[in-house]
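Quick question, first post here. What does this chain look like in 3D?
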Amino acid sequence: MTSPSAARHSDLRNNRSLDGLNFFLADVRDGLGPYLAIYLLAVHKWDPASIGLVMTLAGIAALVTQTPAGALIDRTRSKRLVVVVAALLVTAGCVVLPFIHSFTWVAITQSLSAVAGSVFAPAIAAISLGITGPKAFTRRTGRNETWNHAGNACAALLAGGCSWLFGPIAVFYLMAFMALASIVAVSFVDGNAIDHEVARGFDPSDKSANDQPSGWAALLNNRPLLVFAICCGLFHLANAAMLTLVSQKLSQIDLQLATPLTSACIVAAQLVMVPVAWLVGAKADSWGRKPLLMAGFVILPLRGVLYVLSDNPYWLVGVQLLDGIGAGAFGALLPLVVKDLTQGTGRFNVSLGAISTVFGLGAALSNGLAGLVIREAGYSAAFLTLAAIAAVAFVLLWFGVPETLATKTDSTQQHRHATAEQADDQGQAEERPIT
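> Answer (accepted):
Ran it through. Tokens below.
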């Protein structure tokens, strides 16, 4: 029997290992993004439409694999190994990027890195839920996002400094280092501490329902889950291209300062996201999910409008601070809302992967859409187009998604009903005479 002191030591080690994993995977999960845009624009003189197309192709590759990645995490008991393999692939994609120049090879490497990166979000969520259980998952998720944003801020500061000294190419090697460091962090997570049934969304207090996961129909008939997925897609369709557009505008204003100022944009937003993620972890169980979600969604259309008011670099960096509220709240609340709506079904990670597919589709289309609007009407029109999409997402969330915290019991009851129906159908099939 494990002693209390040994259990506390194990919990402490797992918590710190998860902190490190989220810190080092922060930059890896989000991809090269605006840094790649600056590199291609400044070094290879690519036009914005081509840059947007490469990023769109990578986004499509990621979204195609998001749902299978979630299903893989649901099924596998080697979750840590999956993270290690994915991190190695991302590292390879970063290391080779400075040595290739053609559109085809850049698109291929970024697409492969995006495919590998699709496993990180469901893997971290599953490992966290499997270790903490549902009751402590809210605080652990808030802590995950807090360390994630802290990692993004530190990586952006290092990227700005390294690019100032060694050029934009230094960012690729920094990202490779972060991926390798994440491998070290996940290796310290105790694999025996992960309850793989709880990690896939089964209710630990209802062992009778844990025979098999619910059928796909249970998810497809979950209207709040489907509407929330659409909201997520629209949110990322509006949000994904904004920082990329800002980085391109900064490149046009002052090419030498473009990467440092882009890093400043990222750092400013990430520093705001740290307390926002902490607030979600501390208050989402008492305040509910929806008020915090609404606050995050309403910020996005406001950002899009404010960007068009001035081309001053410091104004652009200042507006980017608002991204810390929107993206910070969304990132911390996403796994909580999905967990609420799928509790007891055994389909937590595949549902998280499916929703990631939807918002990945939005993110993939975002840069391509913005690039086309820029070519036809300019940067201001692109920002206003994204703001209008964000406003639609806010209205749909307001009227179409209920407070999910109150639906946990209902979700478990729905799973019990679905399981009973499956058992009844099986029994009827066995009673049929063989002809």
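The CA atoms of residues 373 and 382 lie 5 Å apart.
Residues 255-287 form the longest helix (33 residues).
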